[in-house]
Fold these 2 entries.
Entry 1:
Amino acid sequence: RAKREGRGRVRFFESEMDQELRDRRLLLHDLRRALEQNELLVYFQPQARIEGEVIGFEALLRWNHPTRGFVLPDQFIPLAEENGLIIQIGEWILREACREAASWQRPLQVAVNLSPVQFQAGDLEGSIQRILLETGLAPTRLEVEITEGVLIGDFNGALDLLRRLKALGIRIAMDDFGTGYSSLSYLQSFPFDKIKIDRSFISNLEATPQSGEIVRAVLSLARALSIPVIAEGVETEAQRAFLTREACEEMQGHLVGRPDLIERYLDLVGVTVERGLSV
Ligand code: C2E
Ligand code: MG
Ligand code: MG
Ligand code: MG
């Protein structure tokens, strides 16, 4: 009897896995069309000085799926990375973000996330160069965000490409800092322009004393290396007060503003009414 139950359970797991596989295949099929069907959107989230002044925006990918509704990046970027679609998608969001930023009256910065896959395949340097030229955005206004995943694998190749990107005049930020295995050692291999302290440390500030110590340690290390720090996921005044006390320079999070269509932030970027109407 136990045997039968056991077998039944195995079969149940199998069918669940089949379903997951089918679902992934369906999603991938849809994702291939998402670009041409105009289902991908760029959301923008403000980045501010710790005192409150907005200094730029991070571009965040959104997929408005015809039947599933809004799909978040964590649900489809890994899929896009597995089959290389991220190359096209990454180039698309880079172009959209630069074009958008170039239209602002205020010369705020725009930050775009890059996938490790974009460092391994395609012509990242060429495509960034082309997009800057095409959109007329000053390179100094573009920041690209990478995670340590970029430096895993072909370490020297990735470093070399990072150096060439920096030579274009753009800035390189280390995203999700503190969550990886060897974040610290990467700081000595490349002159990052900014460190983004991962959201998890900020959201645990009140609940776990260790988080506060980690944030403090990252800030003092960054200060020693003269690298500015932005705290991710700042949601409360208490978190902001802590960061102010610890001399963290910048913040990003719901306290400043949620990711949204740029239309919501037109007053900040200083776009004329004329353009606002024609959008
Ligand atoms: P990330 O680059 O670390 O982006 C920050 C994430 O934190 C975003 O999630 C943002 O919506 C969320 N967030 C910001 N402030 C708060 C806050 O105060 N509270 C909370 N709870 N969350 C906050 P999102 O948009 O879902 O993106 C998730 C991740 O997907 C990003 O993490 C990034 O790694 C990746 N991603 C997004 N867009 C792109 C893209 O265009 N290309 C690539 N390669 N990856 C992207
Ligand atoms: Mg990011
Ligand atoms: Mg992050
Ligand atoms: Mg992240």
Entry 2:
Amino acid sequence: KKGKYDHYMQKEIHEQPDSLTTTMRGRLIRGGESKMKSVVLGGLKDHLRTIRRSRRIVFIGCGTSYNAALAARPIVEELSGVPVTMELASDLVDRQGPIYREDTAVFVSQSGETADTLQALEYAKSHGALCVGITNTVGSAIARGTHCGVHINAGCEIGVASTKAYTSQIAVMTMLALALGDDSISSRIRREAIIDDFFDLPSKVREVLKLDIEMKELANLLMEEQSLLIFGRGYNYATALEGALKVKEVALMHSEGILAGEMKHGPLALVDETLPIIVVATCDATFSKQQSVIQQLKARKGRLIVMCTKGDAPSLCSSGACRFIEVPHVEDCLQPIINIVPLQLLAYHLTVLRGYNVDQPRNLAKSVTTQ
Ligand code: UD1
Ligand code: M6R
């Protein structure tokens, strides 16, 4: 079943152009006589009005599914105008945090069976919120227990480390944002640009997968390290968290995703000539802020690996002091789908080089059905 690949994680990383195509199939519409571009989410069409009118949207999940929701949060807020808050499922339940009838609670889960997420679902339901599922598994407990939802249709994911489900989850939640904004004339140009880039996404992911050899070389350089920091912000704060989660869970190397805006509030103290740091600085509204983060890290002789948009390397570091991971450009809200791919590849190669089990990392289970 692994075909030409050595591991499921590797296969699932390389499958992403296809899994994204399946996620999008029948849901994004372009052309026809009216030349209209729109999104159809069959499972939500009768509920969009209710979601638009809700007081807030609460994204709830664990691990990678939480990170995917975090990546989609800005575009959901932008296009729906509804405030979005984030909850790690266990923390919502621990706090018995406030959930109201006027809330839309969105449960994100690849397996649809995660105990903490299920418990949060029961909790939100008992408080009267509209409960929406974003799941990969048809017939799973979360798919059945939610009032409505969307299947991400990424195909079965076997590796314990979630890869293709992450990119498909972001794609679906971005489509949710487009569907919620569908009634707004003022955002039409923005929405159409996103839809256009959706159609290019599989080929752009194919392009970024060509960094495989480069990521193997980088893994070779980093394999003996104790720790790896990843800085991101805006749409790519999630990329930093998710990249670090992959590195720690499969390569068993300490890694921390850090919001770049928090750098001076503590993490900067860690920076020296030895600690490797990846900075995600692809082209979006936060670019100039990331440029200044890079300058400040360089001033402290940080060992930098900069992820940037193709062609931007000279404007970020001309001295030759940084390594670069150059990725293709897409609309800002879709960029996290591209940017995670090199980090998935890096985590994969680090794991193989360090001699650890790729598909079944120490102490972990694919779906966490107990608390
Ligand atoms: C559905 C069919 C798909 C078919 C398409 C044709 C299923 C599972 N999907 O896809 O095979 O090609 O119509 O139009 O039969 N739901 C939840 N919670 C979740 C996920 C989904 O309640 O977490 C519900 C949805 O509200 C919906 C149903 O499950 O009622 C199916 O969802 P989804 O597969 O996303 O719908 P379509 O994309 O329309
Ligand atoms: O099946 P779920 O999406 O609910 O799983 C949530 C987490 O357990 C999961 O994403 C976990 O963090 C992965 N092993 C990460 O790769």
